[in-house]
Design a protein that fits this description.
By secondary structure, this protein is an alpha/beta fold. It has three domains: 5-150 and 180-193 and 225-256, Rossmann fold (3-Layer(aba) Sandwich); 263-389, Helicase, Ruva Protein, domain 3 (Orthogonal Bundle), CATH 1.10.8; 412-501, no CATH class. It contains 24 helices and 18 strands. The strands form seven sheets. The chain has a five-stranded parallel beta sheet, covered by helices on one side.
Length: 512
Amino acid sequence: MSNINKGGEFAAPTTLSELKQSGWQSRSVKAELRANLIARIRAGEPLFAGIHGYEHTVVPALERAILAGHSINLLGLRGQAKTRMARSLVQLLDEWMPVVQGSEINDDPLAPISRYAKELIAQHGDATPIAWVHRNERYTEKLATPDVTVADLIGDSDPIKAANLKLDYSDERVIHFGLIPRSHRGIFVINELPDLQPRIQVALFNILQEGDVQIRGFKLRLPLDIQFVFTANPEDYTNRGAIITPLKDRIQSQILTHYPGTIELGMKITEQELRSPKDQVASVRVPELLRVLVERIALEARDSDLVDRRSGVSARLTISALESVISAAERRMLRNGATRAVARISDLQAVVPAITGKIELVYEGEQEGPEKVAQHLLGLAVRNVFTELFPVASKGRKRGRTEGAGRPTAVDPYASIVAHFEASELDILAEATDATYTKVLNGVEGLSALVREHHAYLDAEEQVLWSEFVLHGLAEHSRIGRSVLQGSTRFNDLFSSMLSTGAAEDDDAANT
């Protein structure tokens, strides 16, 4: 409406007469969403801000559902932005909406449905006072839990209201409206719908099919106008509850969500959702290699036979993991009295708590234990990213010798590095200063040269980081040994590492 905002201030009709003169016309919430979506599509504007990876899958399906005026169920594993998309639909509502002043259920001044609004208009006529509701107040969200009742959602008689107004219990004015009637002319979202008890789901039948509610003990029909959006996790269908068949039949569009299809998309989402303090982000540099490794951990978890795939691996894992890496680097910076830090490969040990709290394990994984599974996923991420970035690290390569008929074998690019650890070992302390960290890595024969040969574009800080990455990659391919100790990571020859690992396991068993 052109007369709502004048000179940057909110100015709108305040009586029913002024509203009629303004030319404002009633329309359903679904028609409102449809009209604003059409305008947004024609203007080339995106449906959602900050939702990535759904441009050719979920978003088109959601647009079709809105254009068709459907109720919607967003079905997908945890951490797939279902609730975020539902909340974003508010932006498709008109910015302001007129209501009968004092109405509990946002009565349309031109088409009231409650007794209160009808009586007020009958009493005051065109002088009926009008209030305006912002679109953010037209969104209601309820988490489905086993203790939700019909009274919570629909309503019930209120004995306190009856006593205060001196009304009989048969008078409909004693009704206390639930969340759904109070969402009239707005968007109502139920999260985790399968957790809602079946008898409560039955109460939604009439609302979805006929658009009205029935409140116990009253001959009352409220033709509600609501855009319903539900979210659900398919795991819930077997573990905690189910969407009963008649209710599923009444939900007109079920839209499947999914995880990011590429590491690049995952990195984009993680960076967007990062909640690290600004001063922390400003003082800690996280090279792209570490960001790739963090995303790869989630991909490995989603494919792992030790992790329950039906439960899913939320994008919150990568967000928490990256925040942990940044915090590990900041802690080292603070303890060393520095003002700036660069995250390291060894800082990935800090993500173990973020992994163990966000994955559900199958029986075999439970037998291994969450920490061992987390370390296994870390190792897979390092191993597979290393394979993509450096030459094959298999043991079969020789040091320049020749095979039969004078044919030379492929030269092992890691020969000098492996030979170095046959004669010595290297400890990378978690709290080592940048100077010490650089010195110990540059002391490994052939390591820096290998990194420069294959990734010459790296700056000095990243070259050191990638040098450490090579050592971890070789350890994952069993070319050198590695032991994660308290406060440090030790690299040595494979045989020594196997002996030290076995001794440590014996000590653990003895302590147990």
